[in-house]
Amino acid sequence: MHLAEYQNLAARTSQARVELDDSGIPVGPSVLVPLFGLAGEVGSLLAEYKKHLRDGKAHRLFRDQVSEELGDLLWYVADVATKFGLDLDQIAADNLTKTQDRWPTERPTQVRLFDEDYPPGEQLPRQFEVELRQIVEGENVKVECWWQERMIGSTLTDNAYLDDGYRFHDVFHLAFAAVLGWSPIARSFFGRKRRSKPKTYEVEDGGRARVIEECISALVYDYARKHNYLADVAGLDYPLLKTIRAMVADREVKAHPLYHWERAILEGYRVWRLVREKNGGVVVGDLLRGTIDYKLA
To answer: Which of 102, 132, 147 is the last residue of a domain?
Structure first.
């Protein structure tokens, strides 16, 4: 049986009369009953598992009861979908797309490079080694980034009361460049803005795009600070990744699935922790392999 067929048949057994508000959204018992029903059936499902934990093999009807509770849940899901004018087939398809975006069956590391069709002088360097040099002058600690015997970007400090290592945060931009093939800030560092296409230069490589990237870096840093700077963290919370996706919804990097963002962030923080521990070092990026690594200067 297909979900659409099930939804149509389930709708015939719904007893609540539909009442709509001024915007056409169902209100009152017609929608509260199935919503409360969902909550109640989840409780019943948990109760069955509790009995299994308590009684073990003596709970002979465990699988039958679980099947029945799941069936009731499915009915309430179908009823809620119908009440809100949604198609269960489409809901299921959209959910699989979402989960594949977050947890794909295959995870290639090589990703799309957004500047492949541009002149070589406008392409991010396919391999790079950037040295982060920490300079201590009395109580002042700052960091410089050097590439091909010249300083790139700005001299950075923590801009904080505590030493939290944020002065090394250019590592995150380099990670975005290496793993995602995207970083308006790294593109500015390397002098690889795409001037041959004025609109791309304005929208993808301009000031607003750099602000978006800095906001993402700050957002993730706040999250990482609360999770031991992602040490021994294997995955990121979905709401964080979803927020990042929303922030780049009108930028070229929107083409990346969420798991690419997750890998870029986790790999970036792996290298950042090493840079912070050693008070500097060399960040090694390879866009063709989609990797970032660390070595001593």
So the answer is: 102
Enumerate residues 6+ apart whose C-beta is below 8 A from 90.
none
Amino acid at 30: S
Q: Is residue 112 part of a domain?
A: no
For 283-293, the pLDDT digits (tens) are 999 999 999 99
Q: Exposed (0-12), middle (13-18) or buried (19+): which is 284, by Cβ within 10 Å?
A: middle
Q: Would you say 39 and 78 are in contact if contact means Cβ atoms under 8 Å apart? A: no
Same domain, 90 and 125: no
Indicate the pTM of the whole model: 0.83
94 and 57 co-located in one domain = yes
Is residue 24 very low, low, confident or very high in pLDDT (cuts 50, 70, 90)?
confident
Q: In whole angstroms, give the CA distance from residue 159 to residue 78.
A: 53
Q: 81: exposed, middle or buried (C-beta count within 10 Å: 0-12, 13-18, 19+)?
A: buried
Looking at residue 232, its amino acid is D
> What whole-number distance in Å separates Cα of residue 267 and Cα of residue 292?
7
pLDDT in tens, 227-273: 999 999 999 999 999 999 999 999 999 999 999 999 999 999 999 99
Same domain, 98 and 190: no
